[in-house]
Structure formats: C-alpha cells, structure tokens
Design brief:
By secondary structure, the chain is of the alpha+beta class. It is about 40% helix and about 20% strand. The protein is built from 10 helices and 12 strands. The chain has a 7-stranded antiparallel beta sheet with strand order 1-3-4-11-6-9-12, sandwiched between helices.
Length: about 325
C-alpha cells in the first residue's frame, strides 16, 4: 500500500515558505507559474498519495495564484477538484468564472489557464490519466464550468461526498481500493454529465447494431471493455448499458456469448494439435477452468465433448 505523505511550511523560515510551496506544487501537481499576495508567514499544507497512475491530494493554503501553459512535455492528465472552502477566480481556455465552496471543477492539462484564490482555501484534488476518463467527461472539457455539487445536486452531490470519503479514508485504503473507488467516482460524474438520450427506438436499434458489429470485429481483443466500447462510440457507459438492456441482454453477457460461440465453432473444427486452452485464450478468456465452467453452462457439455474424436489407427 502506498504511503500517505504530509508536507507543510510550518517548520520552514518565513522567507522561503512560498518558494518551497511553489516547488512542491510543481513537483506534485503540474508546472504552474505561481505567485502570492501574502508577503510574510505564508502557510500551506498538503496531504497526498499516489496509487498507481492516480494522485490524490488534500490542499490547504494561504492566498495564491498561478498560470499554466501546456507544452509538449506536459503529461496528459485530467484533474477533478472539489472546492471545500474559499473561492477561486479562474480562466480556462477562453472562459472566466468563479469556483465556490461546494463546486466540482474538471479540467485537463492540454488547456491554458489561470487562477487566483481570495484568501485561505482548501481543495480536494484527483489527478487522473486522460486514458482512464470516460468520453462523456472528456467531451465536456472544452466548455467546462464549475459543477454545483452541494446537497440537493443529486448525482454530483453523491460524487462530492465520495471525493470527501476518499480523502478521509486515504490512510486506510489499499491502492487497488483507491483505484476502484475512483473508477466508481468517474462513473458517477459520467452519469451526471452525459446528455440524456432522446433518440427514438429506431435510432437506438441502429446504434446497437453498429456497436455489436464493432464488438464482433474485436472479440479476440482482451483489452476490450465496456469503457473502451462506449468511448469508441462517443457515448457514456450508462447509455451503452441502456441500449443493450433494451435488447434484453446486458453488454458483458452478450460479449461472453459471442466469444463462447466462436470457441465452440473452433473446437468443433479443431485439429489434433488444438487445445482447449489455446482456443479459450484466442477468444479473450484468460482462465481455462473458468472458461470450461461457462462453456458447459452455455452448451450443456464441456469443451472437450465438442472436439473431434481421434480416428482409430
């Protein structure tokens, strides 16, 4: 389990506090050009942890501002920030707005931006590789605004509570638990920001057929997932599940059925050198015992029963 670390300006000489804080922020967050109106006794504290490709931080500090200009070496990350106290006036792209306590703000490292806090403030931040973020969230970044996540805001309020919970329990979660919890958080935000599906049943049927064809062409790809399928079609995972639920078969079950059918076909036509394991692996199954169980559940016989019997000599 990755250790939770805490850094503060408390024991540093007053003259170097802000400079040290600025260097810490650049090392942990992004390459910001930072400044402050506080001339003496700057105070800052950050509690943070990395968990695989994620970073989680609880930041408390005196007033400061900054600006960021993306470059070729800027890592491709998406930030999710929950403002706990204080306000920040920001520019992001060509827009200017104020982030208030209770707001969620989602940003990415590819866009220039500035911010200025109005005094003491606290924020909880997640830094996530862009490849892990649902397409519906990525598609809103160009027009991103603060999202009200106070009590009464529905799904976004639940998402804010989950961010608080991650920060609160950071010492008690395994790296795997942090990553799974953040995945759940992304799904919550995805559900909140994905546009309502107003297409008719005919259009949904066309989209279902298109997605099914996409899946069939990639059945041997073990990296294919509900998230990657949704992203390839510019829809949320919630919408993908909805489209398949209307067909009567959940998406994961449909994919498994198609893979099992391909396996059955290959086993029926197997040569003497073909193994069950090789066929299972070819079509995306990574555990032979599990494959044998689900194959028998689907077809009533074990995989070996459908393979050609050796001819007697």
């Amino acid at each position: 389990m990755t250790e939770v670390l805490t850094w503060s300006t408390d024991l540093l000489p007053e003259k170097v506090r802000f400079q040290a804080w600025a260097e810490k922020m650049r090392a942990l967050h992004m390459d910001w050009d930072l400044s402050t109106p506080v001339e003496n006794s700057y105070a800052a504290r950050i509690r943070y942890r990395g968990a695989g490709t994620l970073k989680v931080a609880d930041v408390r500090c005196s007033a400061f501002g900054g600006q960021h200009s993306p470059s070729a070496i800027t890592p491709d990350i998406v930030g999710i920030q929950l403002q706990v106290s204080g306000q920040m006036v920001c520019t992001y792209g060509e827009d200017r707005f104020t982030i208030k306590p209770g707001d969620l703000f989602v940003w990415d490292s590819d866009r220039a931006g500035t911010f200025d806090s109005d005094g003491e403030h606290r924020q909880l931040s997640l830094l996530i590789p862009v490849t892990r973020v649902p397409q519906s969230i990525l598609s809103m970044l160009g027009r991103s605004r603060p999202l009200a996540a106070r009590p009464g805001a529905g799904t976004l309020s639940i998402a804010a509570s989950q961010i608080r919970g991650i920060a609160r329990e950071l010492d008690h979660l395994s790296d795997d638990a942090v990553n799974r919890t953040v995945n759940g958080l992304l799904d919550l935000i995805d559900s909140a920001v994905a546009p309502a599906q107003e297409t008719g049943s005919g259009q949904r049927a066309e989209l279902l057929a298109e997605i099914q064809q996409y899946i069939l062409e990639r059945l041997d790809d073990r990296q294919m997932s509900v998230r990657s399928i949704a992203a390839a079609h510019w829809i949320s995972m919630r919408t993908l599940h909805l489209i398949f639920s209307e067909s009567g078969t959940p998406v994961a079950r449909w994919i498994r059925q198609q893979r099992l059918e391909r396996c059955r076909r290959d086993l029926i036509g197997a040569s003497a050198s073909t193994t069950v394991t090789a066929v299972a692996f070819r079509w995306g199954f990574s555990d032979t015992a599990h494959f044998s169980r689900v194959f028998k559940q689907a077809f009533g016989v074990p995989p070996t029963a459908v393979m050609p019997r050796p001819r007697p000599l």
